[in-house]
Design brief:
binds 6-O-phosphono-beta-D-galactopyranose; alpha/beta; 15 helices; TIM Barrel; 13 strands
């Protein structure tokens, strides 16, 4: 693999999200987000970790951008915290919040780094949750558009690449079904309803961007994993098709074609899990055309037919909820119960956190998405969470991460060679950061941060071997 196998202006980058790095949770005018509240009011994160200080990027962003430049990144994907821009999510605008991101963008550009801005990476202003019930209310669609309009107007002269929602599939299921993210709800019907409202907000933001910034490029980032059949038994093959519809097409078909997969829609109706889709919704969803699909790839999944359960197959454990594959639970009313059951793939190694490592699945994902939707793909996340440790010389020899990235980049180059149009690749993540539920020990960065779950310590930045 060499550079020439990638397009000339390929965006080699790394990614982050506001809540996971910024800290400064009450700095200047910032209002609380649902993540600020959730981490204070529940004990669902490891060791009660939260993003109050995080990596203190809010105060140290210049140092971080200098490191990005030293690593020669061509792109940096970060998210904007809505409650930093609008402390209550609506009406009043915070100039200090805007100037933080404006300075960050200017700093990146001064170093030749292309900013890639995510509009929503899970940290809804708490005031919108309290006043309207968050994404369950259609009132959020125009409010999200108001917030996006401000960003498009203030930053559109300098930002070309925009991501609407980060992993809608993950934050809706963890937030509204499994009650392990805010707003801490366990109700499938409410999840599907909220998900539809977010689809409307996504389409509205894309249309607004195209109206205000005709040369900008915008799309959602989706947490995608191709689902394979456990065996060639036709029932397993069918289960895999259904699982792909349920886990992937359910979102991507809406983003790219403006319609839900019919079979899943019918199943939800039969289970009384359906939601209101008005004629106007239909028109809106069909009117929005993303310029690219953001792909966050960690791994895929394996399934067999629900009726094919046998003792030789290890069923996925629900105790360690894996956001990339909604495992069927024992609830007979869950849609998965009628479609598939998730099982372990016996051929794959796993990370320290039990996530399957499947680089070939990455090539399959890229090719399938491109073949199906014919849109350029921007890899907006891919990386390895591991326990990194400092050696006696204060170095981090993360050869396992280098190997992981190398294997995935080889598959990416194979996908490009086979004709898939890929805009860029942002590794997750640039520095170590807060893993939403797993604290600070699950490290992904090229740059080590000297802190742990219990103390912010020195927050010193130490480039790892993978950085070099
Ligand atoms: C994605 C999120 C990221 C990041 C990553 C790793 O779902 O978009 O924000 O957290 O996964 O996940 P985790 O921190 O759970 O290991």
């Amino acid at each position: 693999m060499n550079r020439s196998q990638f397009p000339e202006h390929f965006l080699w980058g790394a990614a982050s999200a506001a809540y996971q790095i910024e800290g400064g949770y009450q700095a200047d005018d910032k209002g609380p987000s649902i993540w600020d509240t959730f981490t204070q009011q529940t004990d669902k994160t490891k060791h009660h970790t939260n993003g109050q200080v995080a990596t203190d990027h809010y105060h140290r962003y210049k140092e971080d951008v200098n490191l990005m430049a030293e690593m020669r990144l061509k792109a940096y994907r970060f998210s904007i915290s809505w409650s930093r821009i609008m402390p209550t999510g609506e009406k009043n605008i915070s100039e200090s919040g805007l100037s933080f991101y404006s300075d960050l963008i200017d700093n990146l550009l001064a170093h030749g780094i292309t900013p890639v801005v995510t509009l929503y990476h899970w940290d809804l202003p708490q005031a919108l949750q309290d006043k309207y019930g968050g994404w369950e209310s259609r009132a959020l669609v125009p409010l999200f558009a108001d917030y996006c309009r401000i960003l498009f107007e203030r930053f559109g002269d300098r930002v070309t690449y925009w991501v609407t929602f980060n992993e809608q599939n993950v934050f809706t299921s963890l937030g509204y079904r499994w009650a392990s993210h805010p707003p801490n709800i366990a109700d499938e019907k409410r999840m599907f309803a909220a998900n539809h409202v977010i689809n409307l907000a996504n389409a509205t933001a894309i249309n607004l961007c195209h109206e205000l910034l005709p040369s900008a490029l915008i799309g959602p980032s989706f947490g995608y994993g191709e689902v394979a059949p456990f065996s060639s038994q036709p029932e397993d093959v069918l289960a895999a098709k259904d699982a792909n519809q349920f886990n992937n097409d359910w979102w991507l078909d809406v983003y790219c074609r403006g319609q839900y997969p019919v079979k899943i829609l019918h199943l939800l109706q039969n289970l009384n899990l359906d939601f209101e889709i008005s004629a106007a919704d239909d028109v809106l969803l069909k009117s929005a055309h993303p310029n690219f699909i953001g792909l966050n790839y960690y791994h895929g999944g394996t399934v067999r037919a629900p009726s094919q359960a046998q003792s030789d197959v290890v069923e996925k454990q629900l105790t360690n909820i894996d956001p990339y594959l909604m495992a069927a639970d024992n609830n007979q009313k869950s849609p998965e119960h009628y479609l598939f059951q998730s099982v372990e793939n016996p051929y794959l190694d796993k990370t320290d956190w039990g996530w399957e490592i499947d680089p070939i699945g990455f090539q399959i994902a890229l090719r399938n998405i491109y073949d199906k939707y014919q849109l350029p793909i921007f890899v907006t996340e891919n990386g390895l969470g591991a326990f990194d440790t400092l050696d006696s010389h204060q170095n981090i020899n993360d050869d396992y991460r280098i190997q992981y990235l190398n294997q995935h980049l080889l598959e990416l180059s194979a996908a490009i060679a086979s004709g898939v149009e890929v805009i860029g690749y942002c590794a997750w993540s640039f520095t170590d950061l807060l893993s939403w539920l797993n604290g600070y020990d699950k490290r992904y960065g090229f740059v080590y941060i000297d802190r742990d779950d219990f103390s912010a310590k020195t927050l010193t930045r130490i480039p790892k071997k993978s950085f070099y």
